[in-house]
Design brief:
This is Membrane insertase YidC/Oxa/ALB C-terminal domain-containing protein. The protein is an alpha+beta fold. It has helices at 2-11, 13-29, 34-80, 83-96, 109-126, 159-174, 180-197, 202-223, 228-232, 234-259, 338-341, 354-376, 382-386, 388-414, 422-447, 450-472, 497-519, 523-564, 592-598, 600-605, 626-630, 636-640, 647-655, 657-663, and strands spanning 149-151, 154-156, 263-272, 284-292, 303-307, 317-322, 329-334, 345-352. The model is unreliable at 275-280 (pLDDT under 50).
């Protein structure tokens, strides 16, 4: 089974990863609905796969050309000869024309390309949480079959029929240049997809229907050579895009400047909150919405709002908090009823929503790429072209080993016993990285033209250097990560403006250095650097893996000894006094008094225990419990004054504090 998982991670997961990133970009960052996100996902995936289809088409065209060339000769051979003689003459004819039997499978390449994309999409959409929230026109729930047409008690799914129609039309247009035998698989596959997807979630069928629609449009464009309009007018299109981007940037700057002007608004739609926290009995809590005097500059699809809480010139306000950053809704605590206070005015500024900024960043990247390709060509020196194969392999290996082996093994190596199956995690991560950063880049590198090979190699050189800087220079303090590689506090992953600017500066400097090295025919220097880095990363990873093996063997030996040993773990006296210490994780202090009032029977059960109401937790996670066991000597500050401490050792020392203290009074533990 693990071999199947490795193969899946290398071949299918990279496509699923791209699908997940694109969907997240539109659904979470750009705040698009499920239908819109699936539309753009299908569009982008089709654009990504288009070059692969073009290569498959060119191979098929070559195979068809050879077949057409050989056809008259083979027809003559079949008409005159029989048996072995016919077979040998046909094989001779094929050898003369450079035709191999395996070329017959080139006709199915277009279909084979669909398989990994379909499997990746199927797995992603089937496991997509919240799919039931998606809808489109008559489809109310993307997690179920559409069931649009109902005939009595029978529910008919219409979307699979539409999908199959688009697929058959696409095949019909494409098969104009094919013989019937070659076009037959296209129609068979369309019917197979219909059967497979008929009772599938409508979200998946909707996505694949869009794929079939885009495939139909693509075939129409290719068949009627509509793409030539773009080729002939590519410089005009580029000029038009540049003008569009400049105008868009000017509009963005104007919106940013106008939004930054302070304006006045007021709180309205105030409704009393029954459950909102009260600071004193006489205070009243309200939920509110921010209203604006301006009809243009207010919270909308472009702007988010930020109220200046330092300029609340109203003594009646005790507390105010907005629901979310940029939201016009919030809660307010007043010392009197709103009817007695009157209108509450506030000052606010507007800032551009993040999804608009993200769109502008993408357009800016495209602007740079479209206008800098002439300058990039100068980087491809003779040294670069000569060492290109080594450059791309070394870059891919550095990224793969760093992201898949080094990081996972070093994280697990810091606390091996926290992970039940550490090697499964390492193998899983490493195989994913090999697929993402080695298998597919080299697969694309082998298939595509010299021009694409140059650009791909340059891109991977930049990426390899960038991830090294981000791992070893731009590292942050993200506190705890659990055994599933999930951070306890994901807010710490959000970069500050200072960190973003520093990263941009370092990236620009890095790109400049790499360009300088390549322009001066020093490609071998980069290869040597990457080779040394790769050797170091592998060595450290092997060391961490050996440490993990030792720690797990030690843990297994302890478990075996505990099972076979007759030593008593707990020593309790039948005649003397016993002391028990109960630690209730996540037992929030402020809840206990309310709990005892609501459930008096529990209060009787806890008779004899002492409740200390004025306690505050030192931290938000279990890593700070050492202070609970050991007292003031084990407060986070006291532990952190020694930079070389080991947290596990400090926790073990703290756990011994009470037993050692009681040992002086002849207690045993």
């Amino acid at each position: 089974m693990i071999l199947f998982d490795i193969l899946y991670n290398i071949t299918i997961y990279p496509i699923e990863f791209i699908i997940e990133i694109v969907f997240y970009l539109f659904n979470n960052v750009f705040k698009s609905g499920y239908a819109t996100s699936l539309f753009f996902l299908s569009l982008i995936i089709n654009f990504i796969s288009l070059p692969l289809y073009n290569i498959a088409e060119s191979w098929q065209a070559k195979e068809r050309a050879i077949q057409e060339k050989m056809k008259p000769m083979i027809d003559n051979i079949k008409a005159v000869y029989k048996g072995d003689q016919r077979y040998l003459l046909i094989r001779t004819c094929q050898r003369i024309n450079g035709y191999k039997t395996i070329y017959a499978f080139r006709g199915t390449l277009g279909l084979l390309i669909q398989i990994p994309f379909f499997l990746a999409a199927y797995n992603f959409i089937h496991n997509l949480s919240g799919l039931q929230l998606g809808s489109f026109l008559f489809i109310k729930d993307f997690s179920k079959p559409d069931g649009i047409l109902n005939i009595g008690n029978i529910s008919v799914n219409i979307l699979p029929f539409i999908m199959t129609l688009f697929s058959l039309l696409a095949g019909l247009i494409y098969s104009k240049k094919l013989r019937f035998k070659e076009s037959l698989p296209l129609y068979i596959v369309s019917l197979i997809f219909f059967v497979l997807l008929y009772n599938s979630p409508s979200g998946l069928v909707f996505y694949w229907t869009l794929n079939c629609l885009f495939s139909l449009i693509k075939n129409i464009v290719i068949e009627y050579k509509l793409y030539k309009v773009f080729i002939v007018n590519k410089y005009k299109i580029l000029r038009g895009y540049n003008i569009f981007f400049i105008i868009l940037t000017i509009i963005f700057i104007l919106l940013l400047s106008l939004g930054n002007i302070e304006r006045k608004g007021y709180l309205g739609d105030l409704g009393v909150l029954g459950d909102f926290e009260r600071f004193e009995e006489e205070n009243i809590s309200y939920h509110f919405k921010l209203f604006y005097y301006s009809k243009i500059f207010k919270h909308n699809d472009i702007y988010e709002v930020k109220v200046d809480t330092n300029k609340l010139n109203n003594d009646s306000i005790i507390y105010i908090k907005f629901d979310d950053n940029g939201s016009p809704y919030g809660n307010i605590v007043l010392n009197d009823y709103i009817e007695n206070i009157g209108k509450i005015e506030v000052y606010y500024k507007l800032f551009i929503k993040k999804y608009i900024i993200n769109i502008l960043i993408i357009l800016f990247i495209l602007f740079i790429l479209f206008n800098s390709y002439k300058y990039i060509l100068k980087i491809f020196s003779d040294s670069f072209l000569e060492k290109r194969n080594l450059l791309i392999i070394s870059s891919c290996l550095v990224i793969s080993v760093l992201s898949g082996l080094f990081i996972s093994s070093s994280l697990i190596g810091n606390s091996p016993t926290e992970f039940k199956s550490p090697f499964d995690l390492i193998i899983n991560d490493f195989s994913m990285s090999l697929g993402l950063f080695l298998f597919y880049p080299l697969f694309i590198y082998i298939l595509f033209s010299e021009k694409i090979k140059n650009y791909l190699t340059l891109l991977l050189i930049f990426v390899a250097s960038f991830v090294l800087i981000n791992t070893f220079i731009m590292k942050g303090n993200y506190i705890n990560i659990n055994a599933d590689f999930v951070f306890d506090n994901t807010d710490l992953l959000k970069a500050s403006l200072k960190e973003i600017l520093l990263t941009i500066i370092l990236t620009v400097v890095l790109i400049s250095i790499i360009i300088l090295i390549l322009k001066n025919n020093k490609a071998i220097f980069l290869i040597n650097i990457y080779s040394i880095v790769l050797l170091v990363l592998i060595s450290i990873s092997i060391f961490d893996i050996s440490k993990i093996i030792k720690e797990h063997n030690k843990l297994k030996n302890i478990q075996v000894d505990n099972k076979s040993s007759d030593i008593k773990i707990f020593n309790m006296s039948k005649t003397g006094e016993n002391i028990f210490v109960f630690v209730l994780d996540r037992a929030i202090n402020s809840y206990w008094l309310d709990a005892f009032e609501r459930f008096p029977n529990y209060k009787k059960d806890f008779d004899g225990f002492v409740f200390y109401p004025n306690n505050v937790s030192i931290g938000g996670s279990t890593t700070t419990t050492a202070s609970l066991y050991g007292g003031y000597d084990y407060l986070p500050y006291e532990i952190s004054t020694n930079g070389g401490y080991n947290l596990k050792e400090k926790h073990n020392q703290a756990l011994l504090t009470i037993p050692l203290a009681l040992e002086k009074y002849n207690y045993k533990s």
